[in-house]
Amino acid sequence: MPELPEVEVVRRGLANWVTGRTVAEVQVLHPRAVRRQAAGGGDFADRLTGATLGSAQRRGKYLWLPFTDGGFALLGHLGMSGQLLVQDPATPDETHLRVRLRFTDDGRELRFVDQRTFGHLAVEALSFEAGDPDGLPASLAHIARDPLDPRFDEAAFFAALGAKRTTVKRALLDQSLISGVGNIYADEALWRSKLHYDRPTATLTRPLAATLLANARDVMNAALAVGGTSFDSLYVNVNGESGYFSRSLDAYGREGEPCYRCGTPIRRVAWMNRSSYFCPRCQRVPRQRTD
User: Fold this and answer.
1) Which among 65, 157, 178, 286 is least surrounded, fewest beta carbons within 10 Å?
2) Beta strand 62-66 with 109-114: parallel, antiparallel or unpaired?
3) Burial class (CB within 10 angstroms; exposed 0-12, middle 13-18, buried 19+) of 137
4) Are the C-beta atoms of residues 77 and 119 closer than 8 Å to each other?
5) What pTM does this model have?
6) Are 108 and 86 in contact (CB under 8 A)?
7) Other CB atoms closer than 10 Å to residue 66's CB: what's the count?
8) What's 147's DSSP letter?
């Protein structure tokens, strides 16, 4: 699933190509793509048609394009395989094209392509927090700010982390605590911090927690600089280009390869319907565990 760096790359592309454009026509080609629109695909198209879109925003793994007249936004989540592509109208339709937006300027259109149809689009009302002129879709109220957000509250994060009775990787993937971190970047941040994924959060000192947060920021900024992480053709930016951070991963996807610090083979274990990659020497298994 695309994580914060990949979604941020898409957000920047949307900001460059879509900001200030007015929607002329909306085609919903698969109902699952707009399943979060309670009144259905017709209502989705009606609400979007004629709207002028503002600059793309992001909270964690969610994207939205606010309407310039305020109050509403086009909200999107890429799911496992979703792509938001800016395409020339003459480009042949993709096999898994789900939604198409055409604009009044007759320029490049916006296409939502999703092979597995786990992603979705919807038009939602915005709520406005104090000092936040861009607004936030109502359904994202429970999503925490991400570590690259300038308004991320470190003190509140450390306090919440210390109070949770869980393990450190579970905490990193808890989007109500810190958003945007997924399986890949959690494993990378933990490797850099020399922390085992199953270590109880209650055992983290403030300096250790600060190191973990700093490493999460560093690895995501490094991924962002090269367009994110692409293991296959499903994750691409708005121009259809893949990212290259998979070449720089220290732990994730490197089962059996030597740890870059100590040479011990990286291990992979099944974890919560996912995989966790770690160095058994640098990231020692904790003596105490929580359920």
Assistant:
1) 286
2) unpaired
3) buried
4) yes
5) 0.85
6) yes
7) 24
8) T
- Residues 146-198: pLDDT tens digits? 999 999 999 999 999 989 899 999 999 999 999 989 888 899 999 999 999 99
Inter-axis angle of helices 183-193 and 206-225, nearest 10: 130
Is 199 an active-site residue?
A: no
Phi-psi region of 12 (alpha: psi -120 to 50; beta: other; left: phi over 0): alpha
Residue 164 annotated among the catalytic residues of the structure: no
- CA-based diameter of the chain, in Å? 63
- The Cα–Cα gap between 258 and 267 comes to 10
Q: Amino acid identity of 107?
A: G
In whole angstroms, give the CA distance from residue 266 to residue 113: 35
Average pLDDT of span 139-144: 92
* Cα-based angle 90, 96, 101 (whole degrees, multiple of 5): 50
Strands (E), the chain: 23-28, 57-59, 62-66, 72-77, 82-87, 97-103, 109-114, 120-127, 136-137, 267-271, 274-278
Catalytic residue selected from 274, 280, 281, 286:
274
Is 61 labeled as catalytic in the residue annotation? yes
Task: Determine which one of 3, 8, 109, 188 is catalytic.
Answer: 3
Catalytic residue, chosen from 2, 137, 147, 200, is 2
What pLDDT is attached to residue 131? 60
Q: Is 6 a catalytic residue?
A: no
Which one has a higher pLDDT value, 138 or 248?
Answer: 138
Q: Which residue has the tokens 């879509």?
A: 18
202 or 226: whose pLDDT is higher?
202
Q: Which of 61, 108, 111, 254 is catalytic?
A: 61
Domains and CATH numbers, the chain: 4-140 (3.20.190.10), 154-278 (1.10.8.50)
